[in-house]
Amino acid sequence: EVKQAEATGNGPVDAIFNGIRELFPHEAILQLYQVHAVTHGTDAQAEVTVRLEEDGKTVNGQGADPDTMVASARAYVHALNKLMTKREKTAPAALSA
């Protein structure tokens, strides 16, 4: 299934993160956003790290791509997936009838 969203922000990264939030609503707060070039030159591979916090749970996500915006989106989704996994592990078990 392909999902699409339109979003705005105070820059391209903010708009991407807002678009992801439109598709996958959540209450996580961005604590850290870092970009590093892992290769040399103008076509360098970007490696992005994001840190998200939600309900006392903190996770890091990483993404890499020659396009910094794509790397940013991958890192954000990676962190969200980790948060969802933590939610599932800490959710109270359903009571048996």
Explain what you see:
α1 packs parallel to α2. 36% of the residues lie in helices and 28% in strands. A hairpin with an 8-residue loop joins β1 and β2. The protein is built from two helices and three strands. The mean pLDDT is 92. It has a domain at 29-88: 2-Layer Sandwich (Double Stranded RNA Binding Domain). It has 97 residues and is of the alpha+beta class. The protein has helices at residues 12-23, 68-90; strands at residues 29-37, 46-54, 57-65. It has a three-stranded antiparallel beta sheet.
So how many helices? Answer: 2
Unreliable parts: none
Q: What is the number of strand segments?
A: 3
Give the biggest beta sheet.
3 strands, antiparallel
CA radius of gyration: 15 Å
Structural class: alpha+beta
Which sequence of SSEs, written as H and E, runs from N to C?
HEEEH
Shape verdict: globular
CATH topology of the domain at 29-88: Double Stranded RNA Binding Domain
CATH architecture title of the domain at 29-88: 2-Layer Sandwich
Distance between the amino and carboxyl termini: 36 Å
- Helical percent range? 25-40%
What are its keywords?
97 residues; alpha+beta; Double Stranded RNA Binding Domain; three-stranded antiparallel sheet
Layout: helices, strands, pairs:
Blueprint: H1 12-23, E1 29-37, E2 46-54, E3 57-65, H2 68-90
Antiparallel strand pairs: 1-2, 2-3
In a nutshell, what does this entry contain?
The chain has a three-stranded antiparallel β-sheet.
